[in-house]
Every structure is written in C-alpha cells, then in structure tokens.
Write a structure and sequence with these properties.
The protein is α/β, with parallel strands linked by helices. It has one domain: Alkaline Phosphatase, subunit A (3-Layer(aba) Sandwich), CATH 3.40.720.10. The chain has 13 helices and nine strands. A hairpin with an 8-residue loop joins strand 4 and strand 5. The radius of gyration is 17 Å and the shape is globular. The chain starts with a strand and ends in a 15-residue tail after the last helix.
C-alpha cells in the first residue's frame, strides 16, 4: 500500500450541523490541518443504499441496494475487495449491514458479530453491532468512544491498511428528536469530543483520515428524499493530498475511487466517479 487510510462514517448528520457543532473538527480546518467539502448522497438518501454506494462507488440503481429492505450481498467490486486484491489488510467496526453487503448474508449474530479471517477476500477483521431492539424510544446504539477504541485496537493488533468505522448514534438521535433541538446540539458536541480523543493517535500511526456521513437528516428526523437537509453532509480530510476548490460539491460515488487512489490501489472499472484527491 502507498498509504493507509481510515474512513469514519457518522450516520445521518446534515451539513449544517457539522459546521455548527463539530468544533473540534472545525478547529483542525481553521488551523490548516484538515480540509472540508460538501458531499451529496445517492438517492434514495437511506442508510442501506448509501452504505453500498460509499463502498462500491455506484448508485443504488446499479449496486442493487434500493431501500433499507434490500439487504443482501452486493455482487460488484468494492473498497474491501479492491484493497484485499492488492494485498492489503482490511477492518470494519460498523453496523452489521456492512458485513452483509460486503462479506456474507444473512448476518448470523454468533458467527459474524466478531471475526478475524486473514484469508478473506473482503473484510479481514470485523466487529459489528446490530441495534437489535431499536425503535423510537430505545436507541440501541453502542458508545462511540468504545467503537473508536475498537477500531484503534484493530489497527494496532493487525496493522490495518484500510479500516472503516460507522456509528448510528446521531442518526438515531435525529429520528427521535429531530436535528434542531438541545438533545442534538449536545449529541453532536459529545461525539465531536469523543472523536478528538482518537483522531491525533490515528494520524500519529500514519493514517490518512476521512470523517463524513452517509446522508443528512431533516429537522423532523427524516431522510430518504431529495431535500438538501437530507442529502448533503460534510467531508473532512486529514492528509497531504491536493483537492478541489472549497465550494466544490462532491458526489458520494466519488468516495470509493478516491479512497483507493490515495492508497495506491487499482480502481475497478465499475467505479466511474472521479477521485477528488490527488
């Protein structure tokens, strides 16, 4: 690998809330150590379709995850398989849908909740959560600091070349309270503070880091449609690459080929988006 990279996905955070409440991330930007752009989700702006688009670099109408009811093994190249094909080591600390999309489906809680499979052609080291029992009242999400620590442990123990972390905390808060409320103000600030406890270590370990979302969310706690509050979110980049002008609107299908190009991994022909870092 030319470079190592970590992708941190905070589920369901609209662009406005990134810029207002993530003071830690914004401080890195102000200090010249990070860059930020606005990115737009694939449609529909639902979690499952967006997860698959993030990793395949293709829209839902191509990769086949059309709604949150279409959970299956995706049958096309993705970041995990491309990195493995180039000899890299991959890891995921995410919701279980990522395992179903990119390793095997259906998800078996006992077999798949944790696995270490050095010979896998996809995810070598997986640590997953299911949010079993999730509803409007019961958030059922793990502590974000625990997830950040787990990803860091995998990096230290197994020398990950590529790792992804995904957390649903803010998406769940948004569905319960909306995005213009005291609960969300506090939730964003708290997650930003937890992230600040790990980001410097990842950089010291030699990783480039991208922090972003899968989609936005409305003040009424909805996403899936076409409103900019539902589709647009921030992307923060920590690394040495040059990027486009700050006012450039990025497309979600550009993320997968960008990650692979930064790592020096051949980009599959199915990823037609233009890398935005060079």
């Amino acid at each position: 690998m030319m470079r190592k990279l970590l992708l941190i996905v905070l589920d369901g955070v609209p662009y406005r809330n990134w810029r207002r409440y993530f003071g830690g991330l914004e401080g890195w930007v102000k200090n010249g150590d990070a860059r930020i752009w606005r990115m737009r989700a694939s449609l529909p702006s639902m979690s499952g379709p967006c997860y698959a688009s993030i990793h395949t670099g293709a829209p839902p109408q191509v990769h086949g995850v059309l709604t949150n009811a279409h959970i299956h093994r995706v049958q096309m190249p993705d970041i995990f398989s491309a990195v493995r094909g180039a000899g890299g080591v991959t890891g995921a600390v995410t919701h279980s849908w990522w395992s179903e999309f990119f390793n095997r489906a259906p998800f078996d809680m006992v077999r798949d909740i944790e696995y270490d499979e050095p010979d896998s052609d996809s995810i070598n080291h997986g640590r997953f959560h299911t949010m079993t029992g999730y509803d409007h009242v019961n958030q059922a999400t793990p502590c974000d600091a625990d997830l950040f620590a787990t990803l860091t442990s995998l990096c230290v123990r197994f020398g990950l070349d590529y790792g992804i972390l995904h957390t649903c905390t803010l998406d769940s808060l948004g569905h319960r309270f909306g995005h213009d409320c005291a609960q969300m103000d506090h939730g964003c600030a708290l997650l930003d503070a937890m992230l600040a406890g790990f980001l410097p270590k990842w950089l010291e370990m030699g990783y480039e880091v991208i922090v972003t979302a899968d989609h936005g969310q409305s003040d009424r706690g909805h996403h899936g449609g076409t409103g900019e509050d539902q589709t647009d979110f921030a992307l923060y980049y920590f690394g040495k690459a040059e990027g486009p002008a700050p006012d450039t609107l990025l497309d979600q299908v550009q993320l997968a080929p960008t990650v692979l190009s930064r790592m020096g991994v051949p980009v599959p022909e199915t990823m037609t988006g233009t890398p935005f870092l060079r």
